[in-house]
């Protein structure tokens, strides 16, 4: 890995570029996606199936909608060891989502006024499960389970060429509406609806550049979770073991040749050890090696304080720190892993917190996918006559200050002066 010292002249430009990174929009992809989305929106099933045949290998011999029997057969054909792992992961993800679920409540801030909130699930959501370089049954679990916990009535799953493992996970979760479509055409169908694929209220889940561009294109017509870019890892450590740090960097780098892997430390000796360990381990992992060559970086800072400040500036998707006390300074991160016994892949599969996380610095403004993405909060307010008499004059004063006399009259009409 390249080693950059913050004392060097070139450091500032590199760090500023990292800090302002975004998933670059390829004009050719944006143009192609716009054409696909518009085509499916206007052409419905015929256009959807044409694109599905072209990009997803769809044929009329395979029904567009996957039957429960096909999912069940995939589950029964799954080795017991993997069945057990899927059940363990599902249990932990569900327990975490249940703890996240907000509650309805009400209280009286003053006599005569009751305010509160009601929690309501979205009517329908779609979970996009990629099936490109790797099968991703874990993404099925991470997207469907929070929706189930939230109480979403209609949960749709789409995946082009879904692997047996993905079908098995769908069976485990009791998925009933699963379509073998993907890419921009699937996003368009979900956002606008076709005869075969009724529209949904929101689309969640990661995907490639075409999926991300399509989600952006439909975002004003259909809810989305976030625009995801290549995966990211930052490890900020002064005393970690080089083998642990390097293995986590490699693990995230193997997702994608565009993945970002960064180690931040003020310990120059540890920096050299990690660099050597990464070089050794990348030999057996071609995708990780490609990613590390292109985007891997070790930043040696002047102090622990500078390391912490830089870590927050980068706002990484995944962050590993040395100890629980480090949480006090962490402000921006999608998900945090503490100490040598917390490898990041455990969060990808088993721990419970969602692995669909903000990238490209978006961790500055939001967290990862959660049960909160599948509910809406409806606020409630109720006055008694006495409460309105007490607070109404203040509201009238504010309405008149804004020149909204109808607002003031609506209050006066109820006897308030």
UniProtKB/TrEMBL annotation:
Binding sites annotated in the UniProt record for substrate: 231, 252, 255, 318, 348, 402, 407
UniProt pathway annotation: Amino-acid biosynthesis; L-histidine biosynthesis; L-histidine from 5-phospho-alpha-D-ribose 1-diphosphate: step 9/9
Cofactors (names): Zn(2+)
Record's keyword terms, sorted: Amino-acid biosynthesis, Histidine biosynthesis, Metal-binding, NAD, Oxidoreductase, Zinc
UniProt keyword Transmembrane helix present: no
One GO BP annotation of this record: L-histidine biosynthetic process
UniProt-annotated catalytic positions: 317-318
The enzyme's E.C. designation: 1.1.1.23
Catalytic activity of the protein: L-histidinol + 2 NAD(+) + H2O = L-histidine + 2 NADH + 3 H(+)
Cofactor, how bound (note): Binds 1 zinc ion per subunit.
GO MF terms held by the record: histidinol dehydrogenase activity; NAD binding; zinc ion binding
Gene Ontology CC entries for this record: cytoplasm
Residues that, per the record, bind NAD(+): 128, 185, 208
Recorded coiled-coil stretches: none
Residues bound to Zn(2+): 252, 255, 348, 407
CDD domains named among the record's database cross-references: Histidinol_dh (cd06572)
InterPro entries xref list: Ald_DH/histidinol_DH, Histidinol_DH_monofunct, Hstdl_DH
First-tier enzyme category under EC: oxidoreductase
UniProt xrefs under HAMAP family: HisD (MF_01024)
Family according to the record: Belongs to the histidinol dehydrogenase family.
NCBIfam families recorded: hisD (TIGR00069)
Function: Catalyzes the sequential NAD-dependent oxidations of L-histidinol to L-histidinaldehyde and then to L-histidine.
Identification of the protein by name: Histidinol dehydrogenase
Gene source species: Acidipila rosea
